[in-house]
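Chapter summary example: a protein plus 5-deoxy-5-fluoro-D-xylulose.
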Amino acid sequence: MAERAARHCCLGWDFSTQQVKVVAVDAELSVFYEDSVHFDRDLVEFGTQGGVHVHKDGLTVTSPVLMWVQALDIILEKMKASGFDFSQVLALSGAGQQHGSVYWKTGASQVLTSLSPDLPLREQLQACFSISNCPVWMDSSTAAQCRQLEAAVGGAQALSLLTGSRAYERFTGNQIAKIYQQNPEAYSHTERISLVSSFAASLFLGSYSPVDYSDGSGMNLLQIQDKVWSQACLGACAPRLEEKLGRPVPSCSIVGAISSYFVQRYGFPPECKVVAFTGDNPASLAGMRLEEGDIAVSLGTSDTLFLWLQEPTPALEGHIFCNPVDPQHYMALLCFKNGSLMREKIRDESASGSWSKFSKALQSTGMGNSGNLGFYFDVMEITPEIIGRHRFTAENHEVSAFPQDVEIRALIEGQFMAKKIHAEALGYRVMPKTKILATGGASHNRDILQVLADVFGAPVYVIDTANSACVGSAYRAFHGLAAGTDMPFAEIVKLAPNPRLVATPTPGASQVYEALLQRYAMLEQRVLSQTRGPPE
Ligand SMILES: O=C(CO)[C@@H](O)[C@H](O)CF
């Protein structure tokens, strides 16, 4: 085989819900290698569906930690078999599904620091975990622990101001509290608790990696302003928790050099640096190269907004995390459950199942839809908590139906006005340099993106985000190598492929939507009060 040219690179890992993925990115920021191990397909013995086990109660959702360990063994062996030159790896970083937690058994650190390069990780780490099935982000079994935590710190809004979110069942502090309450013996035999991100970093480090500020913001435990654990939150969840978590670190930190295990077994250079791993969403923000004032809109099954914020306004909706690439700033995440499934339903009902007819309806109706407004929530919406379809005429009279074309525009304008209103409630403001980055299935429909540009008054770009968490992690590894030079992340990634401009605001759009947004906000409150019933 022809000698492969030497190609210095950084690796970006993603320990996601369904698979472990890796990309190799060279100094020109080109992705030249990618691989993955799919849990359901490649690790059948664990019996997961979508990478998880949903328990009989329908609320508890876990994943086997040894499945994650073995997936790393397999993917590294696949890379080795493909002839990947590990000696060229300058640094690596990674991401993990947020909120999940890993429980290292007392004594595990000795095993982790003295791994034999002759054996796979799984064989050596078999007995290193006090909890075999780790709670993950899909779990919703900790409602009681959420109420206890909010009560301990003065309520939901107080917790949100402190940690960036009100209590959420999937957030790690509440999961730890449940384990302490229901399995105190396992908790007492736990010397370290990692997030999925810091657990993965620990494997490469050969010692316990600290939690980074950004993924740590998804625990209901970290004070997001001071970037220290909240003693009130720790105390409300479990005893002696701080010693099990260790001190959190900035997300751009080099947490150490790669373990000798990987040097001897795979040929990594001993000076290969490990940059703190973070959550998948913060890593995606890095991969999409969001900058201050930008907003990323993922138009998928549910719609997700990533915001870059300088001064957050924590609220009872959405999540504020410490920013993964600028320690002085923040990011926000907003989830809208009625995303593409709602768009597909209206397409089927009002455009005979045709996206082309759907687009024609948007083209044939004007901005503002002659004052007609709609709320379309066939499943209980997260942001805000409303269910049902509610349509209003220009005179704010509720009606039971719209003509088909009006219905289609009311759906799309309503979805995007909701996004703008709730993003602004978290402190987001459109800036002159704002770019909207659209991803996900609906981002292939230019007419939908035109409405997005008009409602926000900002240009819309599309970007390939297939591997955004991995690529963002590789970018963060390069950024970690520049530690101490104060080089901003944007400078490090300036060679990366640019997003493609798809839509710019129609002239006059801001005047139309400025008025409509105010009506939308007012009507949303009216619907909320109707569906929530009168305040107690
Ligand atoms: O719970 C979430 C964010 O808060 C999910 O996006 C997980 O990070 C997916 F892994």
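Key point: The chain has two domains: 9-276, 288-535.
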